Amino acid sequence: QNPIRNPVSVEYSGIYHATVLLDGCTNTASTTVIVNPTPAPPWVKWLTYCQFYDAPYLQAIGSNILWYTSSAPGTVGSTIPPKPSTDVVGVKFYFTNQTALGCSSAIDSIRVAINPTPTVTVSPDVTVCPWDSVVLTAVNTDAIAYYHWYPAMYVNDTTAASVLVRPETNMEYSVVSSNMYGCTDTASVNVTVKANAVINLPDSV
Fold it and tell me: Which end of the chain offers a freer environment for a tag, N or C, measured as fewer CB atoms within 10 Å?
C-alpha cells in the first residue's frame, strides 16, 4: 500500500499508478514523482599565501553557496564567505557546498596553506666621501635566501647578500629577499655622499 524506493535514484522519476481492488471493483490513481539529481560540490581552488598577506575572501563557483567551519553533520552554514587569516604559518581547511533544485551537494573542502615570510635586515645608514666605496650587507633569517638590490646604479652585484657600492650622489638602496616559498621582505639603507673637499693654494714666489 505504501511502497518505498530507497535509495532514491534519478531513474525512479516518472508517473506511478496505484490500483485498488475491493469487492471485485477496481479504481486507479496516479502520481508524478520527480527526482532531481544531487549536484556536485562547488568548484573550489586550493590556495597558498605568504604569512601576513592580506588574503581576499574565499570564492567558490556554484549556486546558493554555503560556508561551514566544519564538515561535521549538523554544522550550520553561512552565506558569507570567510576571509582566511594569514598570521599563523600552517594549513587550515574551510568547507562549502551548493544547492540546486532544492538538493544540496556534499560538503567540499578548501585547503589554505600559509608559508612563512622571512625577515631581512640590512646595514645601517652610512656616509662616505666622494669616490669611496662601501659594502652593504643583507641578512635573511631563512637558511635558503635570495636577494635583489635596486636601483642597480653603482652596485657591483645586485643578487648577492653583500654588495659593493660606489655612489656618486646620495642613494637609497633597497634589498628584496625571498625564501624557498617565494615569500619576501624588504629593507632599505641610505648612503650619503659628503661634499668633496676643496683646497685653495695661493701662488707664491
Answer: C
73: its cell numbers: 553533520
pTM for the model: 0.76
CA 85 to CA 126: how far, in whole Å?
A: 39
Q: How far apart are CA 131 and CA 133, in angstroms?
A: 7
- Would you put residue 101 in left (φ > 0), alpha (ψ -120 to 50) or beta? left
CA angle 10, 16, 19 (to 5 degrees): 155
d(CA 176, CA 155): 15
Place of cell 557546498: 97
For residues 137 and 162, the answer to whether their CB atoms sit within 8 Å is yes
Q: Please, which residues bridge with residue 31 across strands?
A: 16
- Is the Cβ–Cβ distance between 174 and 190 less than 8 Å? no
Would you state the torsion angle of the CA atoms of residues 149, 153, 157, 158, taken in this order, to the nearest 10 degrees?
20
